[in-house]
Amino acid sequence: MSTHPRRSLVTGSSGWVGRALLERLVSEGERAIGWDRAAYPPTDAKAIESALADHEPDVVYHLAMCSQPTGCVDDERDLINKAWPERLATWCADHRARFVYTSSVMVYTDRLPGPFTPATKPEETTGYGALKLEVERLVRATAPEHSVVCRLGWQLADEPTSNNMLRHLSDQHAEKGRIDASSKWLPACSHVAETARALHAAGTLAEPGTYLVSTNRDRPFTDIVRAISDAYGLGWTLNVDDSHAHDQRMLDDRLWLLLGEPGTPDGPVVREA
Question: pTM of the predicted model, to two decimals?
Fold first, then answer.
């Protein structure tokens, strides 16, 4: 039996979830590194193989994607969003490594009533959700015995930067002097530290399959905004309406139970102690 620390390779490590995941892995004694796009361009098949050969990961966590192509190569979006995860999944299957792919709650349409569970069949056919669903299927077909798909909700980070809940709400309050929040929307969301814990469980404890990662069990968006405002001392003005009526919650305790929790932590403002 090997005694070396588990080697983890994380794509998208410059984002909020990626950074939180790297911190989590290192705190658990793993040898975790982020994918270096300059050294190993994900649009280059040979570079991808070189990165995997150089790092020999036991687990690959794939968080990255291409939302805004840079124009560096033709077909950049497809090369990064489809070919890259397929090559990673293929390598993991060939080398008996774990592949964790982060998908999204957006694979479920707004027409589909929640809450969503592992038994809920996603049906999005357009846009970002359709892309994520397509890659989910690709990953599972490529590495059925080695892949774990984690569908994530909206992420709350501790600073209002990048694309996270705090940034979005802070920008809206700065622009309007208030936050418009529907009392009839129950979003799928979690704090990045909680998401990192769940992803770590997916990479080390979970059986292959698809898992839903969200810590909002039953709170409407209005309550979440109030909780964030209170937790961060922001004093936001809240305009409560019913403009968006949708139950988007994702309910799945399995990863938390693997971590020894009694169930899903309560709410996106809950952070790891």
Answer: 0.95
